[in-house]
Known about the structure:
Elements: E1 8-9, E2 12-21, E3 24-31, E4 36-42, H1 45-48, H2 51-67, E5 75-81, E6 84-90, E7 94-96, H3 97-101, H4 108-127, E8 140-143, E9 148-150, H5 192-196, H6 202-218, H7 228-237, H8 253-262, H9 274-282, H10 291-296, H11 314-317, E10 325-326, E11 335-338, E12 344-351, E13 357-364, E14 370-375, E15 382-383, E16 389-394, E17 399-410, E18 413-422, E19 429-435, E20 437-440, E21 447-453, E22 456-460, E23 466-470, E24 473-479, E25 485-491, E26 499-505, E27 513-514, E28 521-527, E29 534-539, E30 546-550, E31 556-561, E32 565-571, E33 577-592, E34 598-600, E35 607-612, E36 618-623, E37 633-638, E38 645-649, E39 651-655, E40 661-665, E41 673-677, E42 684-685, E43 692-698, E44 704-710, E45 716-722, E46 729-730, E47 741-742, E48 751-755, E49 761-765, E50 772-773, E51 782-786, E52 792-799, E53 802-809, E54 815-821, E55 829-837, E56 843-859
Parallel strand pairs: 43-47
Antiparallel strand pairs: 1-2, 2-3, 3-4, 4-6, 5-6, 7-8, 8-9, 10-31, 11-56, 12-13, 13-14, 14-15, 16-17, 17-18, 18-19, 20-21, 21-22, 22-23, 24-25, 25-26, 26-27, 28-29, 29-30, 30-31, 32-33, 33-34, 33-56, 35-36, 36-37, 37-38, 39-40, 40-41, 41-42, 43-44, 44-45, 45-46, 48-49, 49-50, 51-52, 52-53, ...
Helix pairs in contact: 4-6, 4-9, 6-8
Amino acid sequence: MSLRAGERLGPYEVVSSLGAGGMGEVYRARDTRLERTVAVKVLPSGVAGDPDALARFEREAKAVAALSHPNILAIHDFGRHGDVAYTVMELLEGETLREKLAAGALPARKTVEYAAQIAQGLAAAHEKGIVHRDLKPENLFVTKEGRVKILDFGLARLAAGPAIGIDATQSPTITRSTEPGTTMGTVGYMSPEQVRGALADQRSDIFSFGCVLYEMLTGRRAFQRETSAETLTAILREDPTALSSASMPAIPPGLEKIARHCLEKSPSERFQSALDIAFDLQSLSGISGESAVSAAAPSRRRFPAGAFAAGAALAALLAVGYGIAVRPGSASSPSFQPLTFRRGTVTSARFTPDGHTVLYGASWEGKPIQVFSTRIGSPESTPLSIPAGDILSVSSSGELAVSLGRRYTVWFISLGRLARVPLAGGAPRDLLDEVGDASWAPDGQRLLVTRPVKDKWRLEMPAGNVLYETDGWISHSRISPKGDWIAFLEHAFPGADNGRVCLVPASGKGAKKELSGEQSSVQGLAWHPSGREIWFTGSESGWSSALYAVTPDGKRRLVLRSPSRLVLHDLDPNGRVLLSSESVRVGSFVGSLGTREQKEVSWMDASFCFSMSTDGKFVLLNEQGEGAGKRYGVYLRSVDGSPAVRLGDGFDGILSPDGRWAVTTNQEEPQSLTILPTGAGEPRQLPAAGLNYRSLGWSPDGKQVLFGAVDKSGAARLYMQDVASGPPRPFSPPGYGGSLGSLPISPDGRWAATHGAEDRLFLCPVGGGEPVPLPELEPGDRMLRFSSDGRVLYGARSTMGEAAILALDLASRKVTVTGGIRPGDPAGLLNVWPTDVTPDGRQYVYGYLRILSDLFLVEGLK
């Protein structure tokens, strides 16, 4: 059907026609609700009139809408208007890759730039289990800003069309179903398994990606014959013309290797992950010196989605092989050898004194952390015959310091029981409970220990002898090769991964030195065997950390960078490096007690949810990842899967009882509170008071904001502040409200549930007075919300990868626990933390942290 300007499909008013294709007609339209311009695609009658096809299409639209990746066309809405079914997408300005290829092959630099973005988009979708099945230049769009967008992701499989002719540039999609035994795809871009009618997974998309990469490099298709049948036969039996042939001498050999690997006939011989492709493409980027780090660094969190520039040293840098760029000027190209091959998280890794063995701790497929041994050059790993735990350090004499029963307590903090174990075998000898980290001194006799004691984190050597302590937390402490200095990472507050590289004398006599500025993500540290540098992994912004070296007097240089998060584990006397590459994801789920139904409400790559509306229909998200850009964003999202609406900038956020407002803190100094409307209205900034905000809540009538904060002296207290005007007023004694999260207020406004000394729980009277302890609850439990009648206080308890909802009857003081809250996929889950429940306790929202990592042996870094 054709629509005229002015016609409406629900809230969308047609402005003009943009074109038509096999999947329907596309129009420029105005969203009358949000006052924005969008693209509306009207689906063909064959899809709109088929209930099964329409249901499949709607499921795909929702799945793609949940991706929200900068290299995938954003889906805003899906609806029906009478007999017309339509989908609403972001409106793009630019041209398809097919149109760009009309002039011939692209330069190698531009090819790397576009291909890396396509691979990033594919990786994001594959991580969600979505396979495109019809990747081709027509389905790739290049915006005016140079951003590549994948179109019809997950939707093209529904397109029905006539038999295909050999006009390759406009070939429609062949499809009959998504089951094995049927053919689906576009001639010239189909994988061998698609041609055979076999089941197509993400590796089929990788083959199609290889066809597109080949065409960008050469200006001609990888498989093009006189007829469709001959083309399909060529896909099954023939290889495309070699890129290094005399007719194409200018193509860098590194790109040829990537393309050839994508176009392997057997899926098992191709790249197994689109993210691996992105890594290899990033290894072709030219990075020159420390000054390039800030310019090239991603804006906030996780993976960069932007373009990658190809440098002059393409062939040499290809030796990296796993998407990592080394600084120019190295004497030799580094080599990367993968040591792990399972799905999960590598928590630590150490060389043994023989130089041939690596010990590492890992949680595979969601199982408890266990120590494994692998011989360099062998793909096999063997678990050590000790209780479940992690490797902390290996002494010069071969004795192990291990963390038994190690588990993540909050975010990146993990604790366990410190023990000594002979490498040759034997039973562990327990030393100390609740230790975060430990490292052997060069003499193999003394142990450096980091651990929490009351409200402080301590650096001790030996245990009990305090060298340094902080209100934040300490990780990755290491002793210099001469034993005279201790380097460590000091983080801003417990659980956070931002922090600094610091140095203290091993004697304990002397002040702490800060060697690096504040890093937004810093994990991993080791001394260089020369003792003249400390190597560490961190990020100027975001989670896409790089490998740096810093001298004891603070001179820093870039050693290695990557589009993913790097974590340094160890350096041996020969300068070999143990390094893991990580994929980090923070998301949120909504679920109902008594059922297994869960729905992901994440919007971007780091979706923190701190609050849910009282009716359970909306959640408030705080985006802190790459998608959020340089400023954290506060978003309101319906749990029905509708697109999130950005309310404004801010860090954290809590909805008012009536859902009309959200309170959030700003990122700048001095900090202050901002009141954001969830509908019509103007934001209001409350006067700053020189406080560091920790927890937020609302009075029942919505006229005051209540919060926990730390003042300039370091004292934590509870405050209230009128929304209309006025400074904050303390209402608790010092020592309460220092923990992050929500601040539940009883329906009568008399009580606030908060944390006090040693993270214990209390009811604090809002009108003033002594807090009432809640000994029935454990230290570290989180308080979420009071029930509507004020008789029950709901809370949460988290363990590694799992959580429970608590219900404390305030009259009987009986605690009811409902457990088993976790995503269906346990691999890489470090933390699960409920953040809110509805007043009836039936519906909950929780967040999760997932880290998937692979361990590499790196040689040749300088």
